[in-house]
Amino acid sequence: MHEELEPNIEKNELTILTSRLFDPRQRLFLSNISIVVDTNTGLVIGTYKRDDSSPVPDTATEVNTIDLRGLTVLPGLVDSHTHIFLHPYSETPSLNQMRDESFVERVVRATNHAKAALMAGYTTYRDLGTEGLRDADANFRDTISRGLIDGPRMLVATECIASSGGYEIRQEHGMHCHGAYAPRISDPADGIDGVRAAVRRRLGAGADIIKFYADYRKRQLRFPVPAWPGSREEMNVMVAEARAGKAPIAAHAQSPEAVIMAAKAGVTSVEHGYMPSEEALNAMKENGTIFVPTLAVIEALLLPGGGSNSNAHRTFQVILDHTKAAYKKGIKLACGGDTGAFAHGDNVRELELLVKAGVPLDYVLQAATLHGWEACGGDLCGRRFGCIEKGFAADIIALRGDVAKDLGALRRVDFVMKDGKMYKDERKLKFVERP
Ligand SMILES: [Zn+2]
Predict the structure, then answer these.
(1) Pseudo-torsion of CA 381, 385, 386, 391, nearest 10°?
(2) Does 296 reside within a domain?
(3) How far is the CA of 129 from the centre of ligand 1 (A)?
(4) Do 101 and 71 share a structural domain?
(5) Mind listing the pLDDT tens digit for each residue in 221-248?
(6) What is the extent of the structural domain holding 50?
(7) Cα of 271 to ligand 1 centre, how many Å?
(8) 179 alpha carbon – ligand 1 mean position (Å)
(9) Together in a domain, 278 and 225
């Protein structure tokens, strides 16, 4: 790691000075590291440790130097479970968003969401479903990657795959020629051939990641409401087809049965999985499954406005305890709040809740960076990010304060760089541009 790296101005190199840098591999804060960035490729060229004899550049005159000393510097954050087209359910229930809001309104909202997320330090979104907008997330992703709008790098799922009668808008009025139009919110597929074709459709539509519903409440309009347990043979085929297409695959799973089936099928990640079960945790541990507990959406749904229902508070505590048990078991966690159900820009709520659950901060920061990249498929996703080292994207953020002492620093993002390009700089000391 230690190399003497002089910034090469001709080659568009930039040196970033840090005094407190989080390394998600070691889960350690490192002192006095300098980062050299190639602004053409947007990649980190290397890092080196400054010793006491290293000359400290005069940042008032030094060209192509950014001084982030005194701040907490992290890799850009990865939100591993988002919905760019959703805004808080407390503003508008999801049904009304999916059914009633226009395509244009939802895209304009998404444009604002993308900017808010980037300003909050989120340089990557793992966006798991358009919720009624078919494959529009792939087009939206491309407007960011082509530089038309500012936002996180996006890896998208397009539509989620669900079995018939699964993830659908429920209506007792089924005659669409008379009733309200209910848009399709998943790509329905059944049986071995059906689900294999669905994975192919998603890849063809531009999905970076496949998402399927391992279970969903099919009998919601009946009583009692048993969950449909899911189909292991269908999951096996979807995982195999995603692998053949070199794509990661995420499973929405609520019940322990569905978590176990999905984990054994070999999914990249399990989303939600909140029902306490030792067996479900064991299945994730044994299969190396990444767990995305989505605590923030659960909080938003269970405890709206802080929550006045003591039963709901108890239920939420049980879910927090289950998450802590996952950490204690050594399950790899990634940080994704189901953002959109609550506000984009408020993404760090998930980090705060993981800390509240009892997961140590260094594990939480690792979950929100390097494990986010792994949840995106790691090298399958075509770019390395979530860690500040040679060959990784220069996604670099800086917080005002020491986050190890004050968690509130997570909400004081003074500096944001993505792919070597600066999007936010609220430091008092500005960096000096090359004349
Ligand atoms: Zn979701």
Answers:
(1) 130
(2) yes
(3) 7
(4) no
(5) 667 666 667 899 999 999 999 999 999 9
(6) 9-75+388-425
(7) 8
(8) 27
(9) yes
